[in-house]
Specification:
Layout: H1 3-16, H2 20-28, E1 33-39, H3 46-62, E2 66-67, E3 70-78, H4 86-96, E4 101-103, H5 108-121, E5 124-127, E6 144-146, H6 152-164, E7 169-175, H7 178-193, E8 197-204, H8 212-221, E9 225-229, H9 232-244, E10 253-256, H10 264-267, E11 275-278, H11 287-300, H12 306-324, H13 332-341, E12 352-353, E13 359-369, E14 372-383
Parallel strand pairs: 1-3, 1-4, 4-5, 5-6, 7-8, 7-9, 9-10, 10-11
Antiparallel strand pairs: 2-3, 11-13, 12-13, 13-14
The protein binds P-hydroxybenzoic acid.
P-hydroxybenzoic acid binds near residues 106, 129 and 179.
């Protein structure tokens, strides 16, 4: 029964003097489940926020708009990828809007502020991108989950791949913030363990795009290769500038797949043949992924990317938890236990969560071919983040 038919029925019953029945009917309607999206809708990561929301809504639509038998209402906040506004923004969702669960965000610095508030308030938080190692490390908590990756995961895999490809001396370049630092750290750990050396680490403030002086430094130093962490609008600009500097022919560029995911249309031809590592790829050609891609393309007239997958899986994880408690979010321990036990049938391939609540997942090797990040192999199977500092 819709709300308007209910109102009509209630009015009719009232007129008949039969008050008890319609009120009881009304009481049985479960309240809507309020989901707070805290995502970037402006700035360098804006497209990533939209893809995450699209993915989440696609799963929801496939479930008839309900999770755990409850209709879902979405409340949104644009976090602008600004850590200085993060605590206020997440508190708006939790205290003002009284959401049942928070889904967010993309930027690691913002996510860490969110994780602190989630931990303090006990609010269920599902992180659909931000890789901040701390979120499933020292800040881990029973009510904090991630549907994406830790910054360490694809970076560590790339370190192994770069060493196997025979590179010895590599320079790194990234934005100076948690995700960039941790991505470089993961790469360096594996690369140096396998005989390589990171000769110099360059960076610039987030979300700056003044790459010129740094590219000149790379050209002068002539390393065997470069490892870069950028994403979204900043990645498009970086790839264009790298190409314009004439570097791709002499100094091959590597990175976690964020460097080339969701941006190939915008970047043009500059990144052809580039090898990256990530927990998703184009051309997986599994029935699960094919169905997802078809549904996504139909719904949004766009091809999905890793960010869309992570949003879709955030909804799947929430759905698994809510299903186990029949939509009753007050049964938090059971809800949490159900997400912990779930096998998520992700478009990326099925995964389960580690003890620290981060996906244990295959990291693919991908190669830019035309406008796609074509899968060419698996760098590391079932890679778990080490979850350093997490006590759960
Ligand atoms: C992050 O800040 O953790 C981050 C941002 C964009 C990405 C990946 C990681 O594509």
């Amino acid at each position: 029964m819709t709300r308007s038919t209910l109102t009509v029925a209630a009015a009719a019953a009232l007129a008949l003097g039969a008050l008890a029945t319609p009120l009881a009917t009304q009481a049985q309607q479960p309240a809507k489940l309020k989901v707070g999206f805290m995502l970037p809708y402006t700035g360098t990561f804006a497209a990533l926020g939209v893809a995450i929301e699209n993915g989440f809504r696609l799963h929801l639509a496939e479930q008839g708009g309900k999770l755990g038998g409850r209709e879902v209402e979405i409340v949104k906040v644009d976090d602008e990828s600004d850590p200085s506004k993060a605590t206020d923004n997440v508190n708006k969702l939790i205290k003002r809007d009284e959401v049942d669960v928070v889904v967010g965000t993309v930027h690691s610095g913002v996510a860490m502020a969110m994780a602190k508030v989630a931990k303090d308030t006990g609010t269920l938080l599902i992180v659909p991108n931000a890789g901040a190692d701390a979120v499933t490390g020292p800040m881990c908590a029973p009510n904090i989950f991630r549907s994406s990756f830790s910054n360490w995961q694809p970076a560590y895999a790339m370190g192994e791949v770069a060493a196997k490809r025979g590179h010895k001396k590599v320079m790194t370049i990234t934005w100076k913030y948690a995700a960039g630092d941790e991505s470089v750290g993961g790469f360096k750990e594996a690369f140096e363990k396998n005989g390589g050396q990171v000769t110099k680490s360059l960076n610039l403030p987030f979300p700056g795009v003044e790459f010129q002086a740094l590219l000149t430094e790379i050209a002068a130093a002539k390393p065997d290769a470069v490892y870069a962490f950028f994403s979204g609008g900043g990645a498009v600009k970086f790839l264009k500038d790298y190409a314009a500097a004439g570097l791709p022919k002499t100094v091959p560029l590597y990175g976690p797949g964020f460097l080339t995911d969701g941006i190939l249309e915008a970047a043009g031809d500059v990144s052809q043949g580039m090898v990256t590592t990530l927990h998703y790829a184009d051309g997986l050609n599994t029935p699960r992924d094919n169905a997802f891609r078809l549904a996504y393309a139909k719904a949004y007239k766009l091809q999905p990317d890793v960010f869309a997958v992570q949003g879709y899986d955030a909804a799947q994880m929430l759905g698994a938890g809510l299903k186990a408690v029949g939509g009753d979010t007050t049964k938090k321990p059971q809800l949490i236990a159900a997400i912990e036990a779930a096998q998520i049938e992700s478009p990326r391939g099925p995964f389960k969560l580690s003890k620290a609540h981060n996906p244990v997942q295959d990291i693919y090797i991908r190669k830019v071919d035309g406008k796609v990040n074509q899968v060419t192999g698996i760098a590391i199977k079932a890679l778990a983040d080490p979850a350093r500092g997490c006590r759960l």
